[in-house]
Amino acid sequence: MMASHSDTLVVFFGATAGANGGKLGSDERELILLVWQIVDLHENKVGKLQRTLVQPDSADLSEQCKEETGLTAEELCKAEPLESVLQQFYQSVSAELKSLGRSSYTLCVDGPLLIRQVLHPEASKKNLVLPECFYTFVDLKKEFQKCCPNAGPARDLTLTSMLDCILLMLWVLPWYLYHKFSTFETVNYKFESGACSKTEAVDSETVIRARGLPWQSSDQDIARFFKGLNIAKGGVALCLNAQGRRNGEALVRFINSEHRDMALERHKHHMGNRYIEVYKATGEEFLKIAGGTSNEVAQFLSKENQVIIRMRGLPFTASPQDVLGYLGPESPVTDGTEGLLFVKYPDGRPTGDAFVLFACEEYAQNALKKHKQILGKRYIELFRSTAAEVQQVLNRYMSTPLISTLPPPPPPMVPITRDCIRLRGLPYTAAIEDILEFMGEHTIDIKPHGVHMVLNQQGRPSGDAFIQMKSADRAFMVAQKCHKKMMKDRYVEVFQCSTEEMSFVLMGGTLNRSGLSPPPCKLPCLSPPTYAAFPATPGMLPTEAAFYQPPLLATPRTPQAPAHNPAPALAYYSPQLYMNMNMNMNMNMNYTTYYPSPPVSPSTVSYFAAPPGSVAAAVAAQPAPSILPPQPGALVRMQGVPYNAGVKDILSFFQGYQVTPHFHFSLTHSLTHSLTHSLIQVLEFKNK
Fold first, then answer.
1. Is residue 670 a contact partner of residue 640, using CB atoms and an 8 Å limit?
2. What mean pLDDT is reported for the chain?
């Protein structure tokens, strides 16, 4: 039994199979030696020195250990395991105290490392229950430093330096007659959860960042990893990613800088089979994750010693009674509905997340057994959670804007014309002919080369397509008449959009009912300078200028059309555009890259070879389109080009076509990265 100011001391010492001294416990090596001795202050007597070997799981000894202890692997193999040695220590001390007529003692150690960095972590990993005496102790170095402040910092003291002032035992016995130990070190039995306010002051010298945690780890798991060190109340903040899921990092706040420094020594120690990286962090980082201002959250977390469970995937119509019924009587929620916290958007809409309080571990375990069981028509995910995670999730959702951020509007002098349509939900087997048949009589309103199939990274149809119409009115009419019309047993959604929106999607952005999200190349600090704007080229329409980008071409040229019967300018996609999209992919951007197919029109696929009825009359009234309109150059996309293909191979492939003397070509960035897509830029040719 431990007692404050006891007249009986137990001086305790140990060594590991690795580093000792000031680095004791930093290399995660096991205990191999325990030494203890009882000092009777009342009778001024010293008991017998007890020395016991401990059998480690690995008997690989460091050179420092062999030199300082003189032990061999053969000796350790014959020793008892740690659990038996601890039991032997307890029985030996109890018997000797009984013979002295004592009932309590004070555990004294030469610095905190043996208790905090070795004994508690190893016992935790081996699921051993330590005697109560190892949760309170006296650090002789700190006590000596208070008595002899000129001896230097306590952490730098050694037995040799202390004995330079006075022999250890001669110092302890008479000094204790005039001085009672002023500081008793304690080890927390368990981690206490709690709330943290954003206005709270957090010392940056007490915070660390742990990285590489298993995604399912809880605050108790992290506290167990740092067993022996005292974490501040509510001092574990699990970090979440942009999707609200744990990202394997946590910020941990300790009670003082000494414990923080010992935590840094556990860098690359193991949690299960994973090693955990430990770095310094700041108080601002901790408050950003764990701090909150919501009174509702503060009231929810005000109940102490509660186990928090997070529920994810709840139906939006789920009520508190539905949740209580789902959890059942075997896992009662603390204070009924008061122990539930539903996460909502700022406008009050539910997010499908909720947090639940349980009074004990047994109730929480019963609740976790219902992981992925069905509520209504949805399965519900249940996880252990923390007070900091509650704050973080609430902060994230409450700060979410109700309207998605849109890209900056174009200059007022250039009005947006919604003369395009987007087809969504196309069958993956759909070809250009299927799209034209789907549009029926409206195909005559398609601009030349205005059909753009959207392909995915592998060059396969993504289920989307964009079509440029001759006017916004025609685009509106098509969207009204063809929306949700069937194509090969699937209904296809048709939306009216602008050329700019089409450009954003083809460059990797997203366009949905929630708004327009710019592609990565439009984001700050990632956009090449030439993406800042698409200047209009003389002789081109503003909407077409969004696709024809002279600064991105190898040799920019102004499109020219014959003086008689000018043809509409052709929309080009620069190979450099694809190259930059691939470069952005290598920057770990989480988005889907899309590629446009070569633009076509009904004329280029011979869809009007024999136009019937009214369609034929409408076509007859127009100038007969040629198979390939006059143009300064054509974009040819080649898939499956061999990696070792050169210029001569490509020119040989086009043998039979006449190439202009000043042609330019460019292999895309993706080819240099072993992808199978290649784009050949501005090959000007015509049939012999």
1. no
2. 75
298 or 383: which leads in pLDDT: 383
Sheet with 446-455: list strands edge to edge. 485-487, 490-497, 420-424, 461-469, 446-455, 595-596
CB atoms < 10 A from the CB of 385, how many? 23
Q: What integer pLDDT is reported at residue 301 of this predicted model?
A: 80
- Tell me the C-alpha distance between 472 and 482, whole Å: 15
Q: Residue with structure tokens 């600090």?
A: 525
For residue 523, what pLDDT is reported? 46
> Taking every pair of C-alpha atoms in the chain, what is the biggest distance, in angstroms?
122
Both tokens of 499, joined, read 């050329």
* CB-based contact 119:134 (threshold 8 Å): yes
Tokens 């609430």 sit at which residue? 394
SS3 category, 196 = strand
Question: Please, are residues 65 and 27 in contact by the beta-carbon 8 Å criterion?
Answer: no
- Beta-carbon contacts of 530 under 8 Å, excluding residues fewer than 6 positions away, are 549, 551, 552, 576
Give the pairing type, strands 291-292 and 196-197: parallel
The span from the CA of 31 to the CA of 15, in Å, is: 6
Q: What is the mean pLDDT of residues 163-180?
A: 48
Q: Phi and psi dihedrals of 171, rounded to 5? A: -80, -45
Q: Alpha carbon 645 to chain centroid distance?
A: 40
pLDDT band (50, 70, 90) for residue 371: very high
Beta carbons of 520 and 591 less than 8 angstroms apart: yes
Tell me what pLDDT residue 507 has.
Answer: 66
Q: Please, is 381 exposed, middle or buried when counting C-beta atoms within 10 Å of its C-beta (0-12, 13-18, 19+)?
A: middle
Amino acid at site 36: W
| pLDDT at position 87 over 90 | yes
What's the pLDDT at 222? 94
Measured CA to CA, the distance from residue 556 to residue 290 in angstroms comes to 54
Can you read off the two tokens belonging to residue 585?
Answer: 């992919």
d(CA 622, CA 644): 47
| Sequence-ordered list of residues with C-beta below 8 angstroms from that of 234, at least 6 positions apart, any chain | 192, 193, 194, 195, 196, 290, 387, 388
Quick one: pLDDT at residue 556? 37
Kindly report the backbone phi and psi dihedral angles of residue 269, in degrees, each rounded to the nearest multiple of 5, phi listed first.
-75, 165
Q: Mean pLDDT, to the nearest integer, of 108-124?
A: 94
* Structure confidence by residue, pLDDT tens digits, 646-682: 777 777 777 666 555 545 454 443 333 333 333 333 3
Report d(CA 546, CA 419) in Å as an integer: 13
Strand partners, 36: 12, 50
| CA-wise closest residue to 126 among 91, 83, 89 | 83
Q: Which token pair is 548?
A: 């024809």
End-to-end distance of the chain based on CA atoms, in angstroms?
103
Query: Distance (Å, rounded) from C-alpha 187 to C-alpha 582?
Result: 53
Which of 216-220, 412-416, 512-516 bottoms out in mean pLDDT, i.e. has the lowest? 512-516
3-state secondary structure 427-468: CCCCCHHHHHHHHHHHHHHEEEEEEEEEECCCCCEEEEEEEE
Tally: H helices and E strands in the chain = 23, 31
